[in-house]
Design goal:
This protein is an alpha+beta fold and 77 residues long. It has a single domain, classed as TusA-like domain (Translation Initiation Factor IF3), CATH 3.30.110. The protein is built from two helices and four strands; from the N terminus they run βαβαββ. A four-stranded mixed beta sheet has the order 1-2-4-3, covered by helices on one side. Strand 1, helix 1 and strand 2 form a beta-alpha-beta unit. The radius of gyration is 11 Å and the shape is globular.
């Protein structure tokens, strides 16, 4: 999958993972895709949930390592 920006926020925990992801997404154009990398399991669940509540499209949530997840989000607004 192709993305326009990547945000590696390993080491951060909720709610900072969502806040940082949202701030980067706000700088992006509608239709662009953001890949967020987290290593805190609750963030792998909470960031996608919060993004959907904000009206964004969550394309994928994948475990990419023993304790790493990628969250792929398309900006819709």
């Amino acid at each position: 999958m192709k993305w326009d920006r990547e945000l590696d926020i390993k080491g951060d925990v909720c709610p900072f993972t969502f806040v940082k992801s949202k701030l980067v997404l706000e700088q992006m154009q509608v239709g662009q895709v953001l890949r967020v990398i987290v290593d805190y399991e609750p963030s792998a669940q909470n960031v996608p949930k919060s993004m959907k509540e904000e009206g964004q499209e969550v394309l994928a949530v994948n475990q990419i390592g023993e304790r790493e997840w990628e969250i792929i989000v398309r900006k819709l607004r």
